[in-house]
Amino acid sequence: MQQTTKIAPSILSADFARLGEEVRAITEAKADYVHVDVMDGHFVPNITIGAMVVKALRPHSALPFDVHLMIAPVDAFIAEFAQAGADIITFHPEAGPHPHRTIQLIKSLGKKAGLSLNPGTPLTAVEWLLPDIDLVLVMSVNPGFGGQKFIDSSLHKIKELRRRIDAVSEAQGGRPIDLEVDGGINIATAKQAIAAGADVLVAGTATFQGGAAEYAPNIAALRG
Ligand code: DX5
Ligand code: ZN
User: Fold this and answer.
1) What value does the mean pLDDT take over residues 57-83?
2) What average pLDDT does the chain have?
3) Is 181 a pocket residue for ligand 1 (Cβ < 6 Å)?
4) Which CATH superfamily is domain 6-223 in?
5) 64 ligand 1 Cβ < 6 A
6) How confident is the model at residue 224 (pLDDT cuts 50, 70, 90)?
7) Does residue 40 carry a catalytic annotation?
8) pLDDT-derived band of residue 2, with 50, 70 and 90 as boundaries?
9) Exposure string for 91-118, b = 16+ CB within 10 A, e = fewer
10) Does the global pTM surpass 0.85?
């Protein structure tokens, strides 16, 4: 079922004044994805960065850009992020009236599509869409800020999703669907999330703590 866990550092915890350098540093530190948190101050109570920053960062790493859109409405911005260099575009089902249409739009642009579940969002929001997506992002904190505490009930959700993802993936001839967990990941919660079935871990605080010399050991420690 599981290969090595992938680590996706969230650049929300990087030094925003030196973002290009930070993206190069996590790339050298053997991150698997670059996780970009896009917030609009409306869908979530914080404003971060937009497609212009994704475009500016693109030449600094060959890793897949895992772009997490916490914005509503979302459809009008998908093409901009695709052109800016996103590889995986993840959105929240609450962000638009027709999630399946948003998935079609992302895929029509040649990008991988992900759906994100907030702590209060039931699995039913994603289950009929699993055959069409490449990634499920389980929020283990409420979206909006880095550095929050892991919500333990997420573990049960991860376990349930693992089962459903495996069933869909098997029915589709082994097509990979990532199960990514985002929020409050540290060495202890990483272990729990991996045991529950996660295969990608987003880590902001836990990656960037201690300065650039620590990024490689921080990332390695999270893989379990
Ligand atoms: C929260 C973001 C997360 C966050 C994770 O809305 O989606 O990616 O930055 O930060 P840590 O790892 O510090 O909890
Ligand atoms: Zn995120």
Assistant:
1) 98
2) 97
3) no
4) Aldolase class I (3.20.20.70)
5) no
6) confident
7) no
8) very low
9) bbbebbeebeebbebbeeeebbbbbbbb
10) yes
Determine the residue type at 201: L
Alpha-carbon distance 150 to 12, whole Å? 17
From the CA of 207, give the closest atom in ligand 1: 12
Alpha carbons within 13 angstroms on the beta-carbon side of residue 210 total: 9
Task: Report d(CA 63, CA 46) in Å as an integer.
Answer: 26
197 Cβ below 6 A of ligand 1: no
The full set of domain ranges for the chain reads 6-223
Cα 202 to ligand 2 centroid, rounded to whole Å: 7
Tokens read off for 78: 């998908």
- Mark whether 37 is an active-site residue: yes
Ligand closest to 67 (CA) is 2
Residue 182 beta carbon below 6 angstroms from any ligand 1 atom? yes
